[in-house]
UniProtKB/TrEMBL annotation:
<feature type="domain" description="DNA-directed RNA polymerase RpoA/D/Rpb3-type">
    <location>
        <begin position="71"/>
        <end position="350"/>
    </location>
</feature>
<dbReference type="GO" id="GO:0005736">
    <property type="term" value="C:RNA polymerase I complex"/>
</dbReference>
<dbReference type="InterPro" id="IPR050518">
    <property type="entry name" value="Rpo3/RPB3_RNA_Pol_subunit"/>
</dbReference>
<comment type="similarity">
    <text>Belongs to the archaeal Rpo3/eukaryotic RPB3 RNA polymerase subunit family.</text>
</comment>
<keyword id="KW-0539">Nucleus</keyword>
<dbReference type="InterPro" id="IPR022842">
    <property type="entry name" value="RNAP_Rpo3/Rpb3/RPAC1"/>
</dbReference>
<keyword id="KW-0007">Acetylation</keyword>
<comment type="function">
    <text>DNA-dependent RNA polymerase catalyzes the transcription of DNA into RNA using the four ribonucleoside triphosphates as substrates. Common component of RNA polymerases I and III which synthesize ribosomal RNA precursors and short non-coding RNAs including 5S rRNA, snRNAs, tRNAs and miRNAs, respectively. POLR1C/RPAC1 is part of the polymerase core and may function as a clamp element that moves to open and close the cleft.</text>
</comment>
<dbReference type="Pfam" id="PF01000">
    <property type="entry name" value="RNA_pol_A_bac"/>
</dbReference>
<dbReference type="InterPro" id="IPR001514">
    <property type="entry name" value="DNA-dir_RNA_pol_30-40kDasu_CS"/>
</dbReference>
<dbReference type="GO" id="GO:0005666">
    <property type="term" value="C:RNA polymerase III complex"/>
</dbReference>
<dbReference type="InterPro" id="IPR036643">
    <property type="entry name" value="RNApol_insert_sf"/>
</dbReference>
<dbReference type="GO" id="GO:0003677">
    <property type="term" value="F:DNA binding"/>
</dbReference>
<keyword id="KW-0804">Transcription</keyword>
<dbReference type="GO" id="GO:0005654">
    <property type="term" value="C:nucleoplasm"/>
</dbReference>
<dbReference type="GO" id="GO:0003899">
    <property type="term" value="F:DNA-directed RNA polymerase activity"/>
</dbReference>
<keyword id="KW-0240">DNA-directed RNA polymerase</keyword>
Amino acid sequence: LRRRGRRGSKMAANMSNVEDIRSRVLLGEFGVKNVHTTDFPGNYPGYDDTWDMQRFQKNFTMDIVDLDENCMEFDMVGIDAAIANAFRRILLAEVPTMAVEKVFIYNNTSIIQDEVLAHRLGLIPIKADPRLFEYRNSGEDAGSEIDTIQLQLKVKCSRNPRASKDSSDPQELYLNHMVYSGDMKWMPIGNQADVFADANIGPVHDDILIAQLRPGQELDIIMHCVKGIGKDHAKFSPVATASYRLLPEITLLEPIEGEKAERLKRCFSRGVIHLEELNGKKVAMVVNSRLDTCSREVLRHDDLKNLVKLGRVRDHFIFTVESTGVLPPEVLVTEAIKVLMTKCQRFLNELDNTDME
């Protein structure tokens, strides 16, 4: 009976270790373990890791945690890191937007060189729905209403006749000496004035500083905005950042009380560990491991490091998407999913064509 009990406990321990290797990234004192996916078919005896659509649909979930005008945080659970990373890269580089592509400078007497000025204009986010426009053909120099947005920047600096003689403040001495993105005005092409009457096309932010002028200096510029993707140039990227992290997991291996519990709480980010009163003693409890930054500070304490197990859930991705303001973040996520679906369909079509040949 004792032997059977030992075998049973040993098998349970082995199963636990295998499950950790399969589904957890473990944070150790001197390194990170189990960083690679290993749950492929046949790798673990007794586990059926063959692909199954019903199992995937049952396990896969997407939950929106936080959403505002420009930022979105959501959980994507039940997928491999390769798919999550493909989704992140599509958000960065393959969701199209509109941006300044051609800059026609008719007059620039400011101290900023034409090339630098054109580069600054190109990086200003333009609020226009790219889904309503077509890609411009590479051979076309002149744009049309279906593929081009035209903006004008025309500003001339002059002295303020009402400024006091003793003033040295440029804000008071000069008129139009600060050129902002709000000075870029939309010039409709063809029937755009009717089609986009309610679109309010123009820069996302009106307070981006473009140049500073002095009396007599002026800018007279026409800009053409076209549809493009971040893979071609960073100015077309629709996100300021798109990143993910794995869900942290903190397991207390035995009760931690008193002064140890106080120190344990200080080892983690605020809100991760909570102290509860039990039988007159303060006992540490993990209440929200999601808030942890995985600093591994607890591993510096010799009397605490063996009482805590730190890990990350391998298939639970916490995505953070911050839009530049061109499109709402939830729209960007939807468009990224469409791009990924298009890629998959193209791959399947290529396989079908290969089989036919």
